[in-house]
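Reopening this ticket.

The earlier resolution said the output was attached, but the attachment link was broken on my side. Pasting everything inline this time so it's all in one place.
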Amino acid sequence: MTITIYHNRDCGTSRNTLAMIRQGGADPIVIEYLKTPPSRERLRELIAAMGISVRALLREKGTPYKELGLDDPKWTDDELLDFMMAHPILINRPIVVTPKGVRLCRPSEAVLDLLPNSHIGRFVKEDGEIINAD
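Inline output:
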């Protein structure tokens, strides 16, 4: 089973998600999306596959969200995509793609439903939270 994660190594949730995937025995394709952002069309496909709105994929914390005024509902989906293309840090993460589906894995344990082996046992997140996925 091919698993792809759109990953930001500076994000704890993304690191936890990647570690859970690996603890489940998978060797995912890791796309560091800040270095290699998805194309506009790929981003549209991911959003559609997740069944969320473009706005729901926007990340606020640690981004130019406020400075760009993206909280204003005047922005169309196409304009929001333009902002994400210009500032990939605005794309929330991690996005995981498997044959079982596509999901924004926040919280990180949301990835378990997408894994071929969701029974990864005991997992300790970076913040000390314990996940028991037996």
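Reporter confirms the inline version is readable. The mean pLDDT is 96. The chain has three helices and six strands.
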